[in-house]
Amino acid sequence: MIIHEGFYIHDFPTLKDGKYSCSNCDKKYIRKQDLVRHLNYECGIEPQFSCSYCDLRFKHRFNLKRHIIRSHVK
Ligand SMILES: [Zn+2]
Ligand SMILES: [Zn+2]
Fold it and tell me: 1: Cβ–Cβ under 8 A, 6 or more apart, which residues?
């Protein structure tokens, strides 16, 4: 399973029949509040924290930290 910022990318349950679609990208959401959250926190926001071990980037420092611990620290 691919975990990205806490969501399962390949099986996101609201993608198929979401009523609210983002005008900037192709994401769709069933609940309006989810679209609003997407617009406020995800869409068009450049990830600021880049991993120094690989090419992944993260929007939050704790996500980067968690990624490094899980993927690169042995
Ligand atoms: Zn979007
Ligand atoms: Zn990495």
Answer: 8, 10
CA distance 74 to 71: 8
Inter-CA distances, 38 with 46, 50, 64, Å: 13, 21, 19
Ligand index nearest the alpha carbon of residue 55: 2
Global pTM value: 0.43
* Residue range 8-20, pLDDT digits in tens: 444 455 445 678 9
Report CA 43 to chain centroid distance, whole Å: 9
- Which residues make up the environment of ion ligand 1, defined by Cβ < 5 Å? 22, 24-25, 27, 43
- What residue segments make up the domains of the chain, in order of their start? 1-43, 47-73
Question: Among all ligands shown, which has an atom nearest to the Cα of 44?
Answer: 1
